[in-house]
Amino acid sequence: MSLLTLMLQIAVILATARLAGLLFRRMGQPQVMGEMVAGFLLGPSLLGWLSPDLSSRLFPPGSLASLGPLSQVGVLLFMFLVGLELDPRLLRNRGRAAVVTSHASIVVPFLLGSLLALYLYPQLSDRSVRFDEFALFMGAAMSVTAFPVLARILAERNLLRTRLGAMTIACAAVDDVTAWVILAGVVALARVDAGDQPLGFTLAGSAAYVLFMVYGARPALRRLEAYYHSRGRLTQDMLALALVALTLSAYTTEWLGIHALFGAFVAGAIMPKDPGFVHELNEKLQDVTVVFLLPLFFAVTGLRTSIGLVSGAEMWIDCGLIVVVAVVGKLGGSALAARLTGLSWREAGALGALMNTRGLIQLVFLTVGLEIGIISPALFTMMVLMALVTTFMTSPLLEWIYPARLIRQEALGVLEDGKAFTVIVPVALPSAGPELLRMASSLAPSPRDRIYALHLVPAADQSMLDPGRFTRPADSETLQPLLAAAEDQGTSVRPLTFVSQNVGRDILEVSRAKGADLILMGWHKPVLRQSILSGTIYGVMSEARADVAVYLPRHFRPWRRILVPYLGSVHDLGALELAKRLAAQGETELAVLHVVRPTALPPPAPPGLSLEDLAGSSGLSIRMVMSQDPLDVVVEEARQSYDLVVIGVSEALGLQPTLLGAGHERLARECPASMLIVHKRVTT
Amino acid sequence: MKAILLYLVLVGLPVLGVVGILRLGSRLEAPPDIGGTWRAAFAPAAQLVPPCVELPPDAAAFDVAQSGVHASVTLNDASRTRLDGKLRGMHLWGRAENLPLLGTARTACPGAPLELAADLVWDGRESHLVGNLWAGGCAACAPVSFRAERVSGR
After folding, report:
1. How far is A381 from chain B (nearest CA, A)?
2. Does the predicted model carry a pTM greater than 0.80?
3. What is the ipTM of this complex?
4. Which of A287, A213, A205, A211 is nearest to A254 (CA)?
């Protein structure tokens, strides 16, 4: 096969995988699900069926000879990353409930898979395969959980830090390790049977290999961690060393007869677990693995999967049986064990649904089974369909059992009592954090007041293999500067970090759940839009049940002189309220510029919220100006030496929230002082 | 105590179950292994009527893709004719519908299915597939008999 054909194949595979991934993500499915389906579509099951000519031109016989090794390298890297992400603490010091649940979540589907093997062996196997190998493989295949997909779903639903999330992750980690050990055993048995290796050699060699990796290689690799700390980053030499460790380990296990994948997994598992090291190593390897190599693996799997091999009612009934047994064993077994060990029915059902995710790990598992001849091509196809069905059903099933809204409410806790002033501060950029905090702590200075720093991670930015790194609030890189500033000035801030499918909606939900009085947002100039009060800010201002303020810092000096332009709207009154809060913090001069059009009457203010009411005894100065053009007057005044201009949203001043950013926002552009643009919640 | 009891019920019993299944399954018999590539020697047409299928005169290879009792036989002809079939004991039967058959069947019985029946025979050293290929329901042509030996496994 020519290099040209290979390049074309790779281009088609990558494009199809990305498109399908995108489509599935829009359907609320994990992206990897779409990529798996893309591989399936490119194989004989769809492309080969619709257009055999195109299929045979694009993937001529012998394609696997080139694509196969590339995809295998991808799977080796993937297994290394799965091992790298395996936290040994998840396997130790677990509570009794987690031990029982995790073991039952393996053994129950294993039992049902073996039971199914009694029926399938005479139907879909042959005498070249021993029953014990076949039954053990079927049992292990039914027990598989896709750890990376599961971790990603947990992170997306903000479940990682809940009791359910912790238990699910622990169970999945145990399942992962156990399933690979069983597979290594089955492969060894099959190869011994085939006469490739003597059993004694495989057993003794495997034991020596594991002992060496745990007691020899792992301590030696700790030097890598020390070197990483001394250099402060992962160098190319260190990356090369990790890759050499991976390939040597994979080579050894392949040579011993227990498959290269096991070696790749173990190499990842014994790598130093320093979070920075793991994160950097992951980051360097993940993109090329997930974006480039794994889609090739999905395509190779798809080329080997022919739905045409499952023909006739009898075979489709067998296929259905496999799906039912897989779901009942994994979902039912895990849920039952979780319920009996103390989780609520809802939590137990959610755990079962999550553990039922098989995804990519199952495809890797099945490919090994097909390669060593334990499962036949038709059974392989049926099991691939089962993997697709069980992975596809996870998200909707989980949403049904444990709706995202409920999870969010539980995670956020109940509304707190009291009349404290509560400010939600969504932070998108780390550099914006400290200045937003200065504003928030000036607006909510009392110890009773609450400031929540909120960082929402768009789901699209989630790491596939390191989903947890975005979700620990105190560890959030984005919130770090804000939290450090809070610590310096002794301000109490509650950090919140969530993965978000819709940032605007989630800001609103958090503000509702926390009973926020004010949502204080920053603004940074986006690539495609110029205006401030559009996009997410528009969405939040339109729907918030709290006041919303957008802070545009222009300098970092104290606010000694504050200007409040007042045209008579309720938003101007909201601006004045906030300005008074700020002025109450020190020796601040608060000037109100009341602009009145000669021909217009100002709209009536709500009871108790007139300019006079708010002025009260606070000592602020009010200057009235008559003008047909309030914008000119306000811009001119704002150019005087004010530190901060607090202003209500206003169509007359070109500062109105619009979906597409139609306001000219001249004031914001021409005002040299920092600005706080206020949108007062209008109660009906 | 409750946790230990739960562990015994939820983990211990299923493990015993697996052990029992492995013992029970060791008595099961799977279909014979016929997957792989076979080289067939076709018998010369000695009948009065011409053969239904024209294949290379002396030998031809065909592939068997087996999934348990289900097998598909792909002939090494120009159109890679595929017959879907089943194994019953040591007997293989396959059929391909609506194929443009070569030979007499094409004109005498258009649209007739191509059928295959063969027995797996052990000659003390290796297994052979011995059987016939014919056009179903077509008396105008004669079955082609063959004897095949396996060249490579799957």
Report:
1. 11
2. no
3. 0.85
4. A205
